[in-house]
Amino acid sequence: MKIAKWLTVSLTLAIAGLSGSMAFAATEIQFWHSMTGPLSEKLTEITEEFNAKQHDYKIILVNKGNYAEAMTAAIAAFRAKGQPDILQVHEVGTGTFMAAGQAIYPVDKLMKDEGKAFNASDFLPAVTGYYSSTDGKMLAFPFNSSTLDTFYNLDAFKKAGLSTENLPKTWDEVADAARKIVQTGAAKCGLTTTWPSWVHVENFSAWHNIPISTKENGFGGLDAVFEIDNPLVKRHWSNLVKWQKEGIFTYGGRASTAMNSFLSGQCAIMVSSSSSIADIKSSGHFSLGVGMMPYYADVKGAPQNSIIGGAALWVLSGKPKVHYKGIAEYFEFLSSPKIQAEWSEATGYLPITTAAYELSKSEGFFTKNPGSEIAIQSVNLHTPTVNSKGLRFGNFSQIRTMFEEELEYALNGTKTVDQALSDAQRRGNTELRKFEAQQSK
Amino acid sequence: MKRSIFRGWLFPLAFLAPQLLISLAFFFWPAGHAIQESFFQSDVWGGGRIFVGLANFTTLFHDPLYLKSFVTTWIFSFATAFISLFFGFFLATAVDRVHRGQATYTTLLLWPYAIAPAVAGVLWMFLFNPSIGIVSGWLHFFGIDWNPLLHASDALVLTVIAASWKQIAYNFIFFLAGLQSIPKSIIEAASIDGASPFRRLYTIILPLLSPTLFFLMVMNVVYAFFDTFGVIDAATQGGPGQATMTLVYKSYADGILHNDFNSSAAQSVILTVMVIILTVIQFRFIERRVHY
What we know:
The structure holds 2 protein chains of 2 kinds.
Chain A: H1 2-23, E1 27-33, H2 37-52, E2 57-63, H3 67-79, E3 86-90, H4 94-98, H5 107-113, H6 125-131, E4 141-144, E5 148-153, H7 154-159, H8 171-184, E6 189-193, H9 196-207, H10 214-217, H11 231-246, H12 259-263, E7 267-273, H13 276-283, E8 288-291, E9 311-315, H14 321-334, H15 337-347, H16 354-362, H17 365-368, H18 374-379, H19 396-411, H20 417-439
Helix pairs in contact in A: 2-15, 9-19, 15-16, 19-20
Chain B: H1 10-37, E1 40-42, E2 49-51, H2 55-62, H3 64-97, H4 102-110, H5 117-128, H6 134-141, H7 152-180, H8 184-192, H9 197-227, H10 229-235, H11 247-257, H12 261-286
Antiparallel strand pairs in B: 1-2
Helix pairs in contact in B: 1-12, 3-7, 3-9, 5-7, 5-10, 7-9, 8-9, 9-12, 11-12
């Protein structure tokens, strides 16, 4: 009798335990990303909020290294049938992913198939244009789009006797300020920059309304030809070389390596991604000023509008159907005004939807945080022209590295600016032709 | 030398199997795949591939930047190998002469070898970082315009130092063992006969050390050509321009960062063949002078 009682009790408990765990077996959705530091913390916070408020789906965040590494890992995983559901792909990977064909599940189609509202018009025009196919369908979910800001160490400005109210607007004014700062010893270095190609080739061209290539910067076809070897870019690169020699501009490396010298107070002015604001707020111990990207005042049409950087979320095909419902719900959550506003306020990325922007404005975020509205203002400055709505090139990750290598050759005197720019254009075009040939097979 | 006799062949096979399996899985299989891939042009997403014969190889040899990376690699590798061997030997002779605390010195000098190459790269990158590095601070104080992110020579110096540092420890321990196995009586006899320290080094120590030296030369060259990838990735990523773009790093950058798997495979094949040839040359010509 005792044994039977024992058996019944343990069996009941086992069944209860099993069914309990079955009730909690949420569908796991793999999200591979490249966020680090405060950006990663915020993403984790938002995702945990989504995971907590429903029990059908669980988004698993995995940091797969930087954007290039994550992209390669996902492609390799796809070949081995172990791909993630969602991948965060940087804007330079857009060309490659748009050509991925069957491997991706266009977000527009996904949301429609799952019955979720998804209107391109809800999003910022700068963003929709970038991630839409030629027939106007959004292929990726814009999530963390940044743009350029110029950051100023106002303590150094004060020390150099420069106005902290009237921040420099043109490149010449920036150079003068940098010169004064170095001469008075207010800081060791005047100007530095992160993301050399994104700032000094891509955004530089858009900001001055000149084309980067033919065929609408690549939107019009795979047979685009680079036109960066032009007088204005040449003038700007020559200025950078001159300022480097003068000691007022210090080259700080590729990606965001140069941010260290701004955070440490060594350099007083930095042109960088708007998302740097998160790091500056947590690690910078000085008073911060923010402005738009500098421009050359004598160029007609400048400043036009800046183009976006950052990344978007792409959905890969080949996963079980039930996953896609979860992905659609997650995207709906991410694009809700409250979450978007919260995300952009914490990170410095642009509020992707107009609703989110309005929400932040109405909550007084921009008045309480002067400088945080600069990013969206510079991307919305004017209606994008064919030169400033973005760019779309295959193999662009490689091409960007090539542009940066050539700029480095010019800066350290190995090549003249003429030679470097001409080589950059030539090398970039070789890559474009390679990509074009691969797609036609 | 005693020869161990095993009964049957199953027993020894069982002992060898784990290592053979590892070699198969982590060397032969990927190497075979790489050789295969180098003759094709594959779709990035695994959609299919086309046989292109030697096209990947010819494209590489027509690329002036690829040819330049040969030069960069040779300069980098031989500088690294020479510095590692020289300082390893120097430290070994120094420690060999010490009576008290030899164990302490040996332990301390051996530690860098335990550090992963990527960690060594990061370490040195921090020390020499133009904005926040301590050593950079000292160099700037003395008026030296140190910037490995901008000046090609600075970048090469940084990567060579970071890569050599680890290997010095490795060479040191082998040299020390080699030196300590030289009978003291021979050296004493030589010095009684009036041989100067340099004469003793040249006539007695180096010849008796030559097996060790030869072994280390081969190991150092292989290390410099292949295992320095981590150091370069952590410190300079092949820049500025392509000043520190060695063959092994270029293979990584083209394959993993830029998804051109076929070119990367072709580059790996070329690099492997080159190092094989180099090793064969070392065995054929230099081993003759080794005094066993």
